[in-house]
């Protein structure tokens, strides 16, 4: 599955992008400090700096995924989007 975090415009040349997984009220890192975290390290990757690709998805991947973008040089320094993923 591919989850996309679209950055429309930024003057920051290298914005910080983080992905988090929120499930049952608990938040965990998926992509942090420019690397995949936990079990995502072996089955996920970042494409084009903004899209999260999760391979071999299971029902355990059903959650809300939050993409957070920090661009300190921009007028809007931080933004986020939540994507609900449901694996049948």
UniProtKB/TrEMBL annotation:
BP GO terms, sorted: cell migration
Residue ranges of every copy of the Ig-like domain listed in the record: 1-79
Domain of life: Eukaryota
Coiled coil, from the record: none
Listed GO CC annotations: cell-cell contact zone; plasma membrane; protein complex involved in cell adhesion
UniProt-recorded Gene Ontology molecular function terms: cell-cell adhesion mediator activity; integrin binding; protein heterodimerization activity; protein homodimerization activity
One Pfam family in the UniProt entry: V-set
Name of the protein in its database record: JAM3 protein
Organism (species): Pygoscelis papua (Gentoo penguin)
């Amino acid at each position: 599955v591919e989850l996309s975090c679209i950055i429309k415009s930024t003057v920051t040349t290298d914005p910080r992008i983080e992905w988090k997984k929120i499930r049952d009220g608990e938040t965990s890192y998926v992509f942090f400090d420019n690397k995949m975290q936990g079990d995502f390290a072996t089955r996920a990757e970042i494409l084009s700096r903004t899209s999260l690709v999760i391979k071999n998805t299971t029902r355990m991947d059903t959650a809300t995924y939050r993409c957070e973008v920090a661009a300190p040089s921009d007028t809007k320094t931080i933004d986020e989007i939540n994507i609900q993923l449901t694996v049948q």
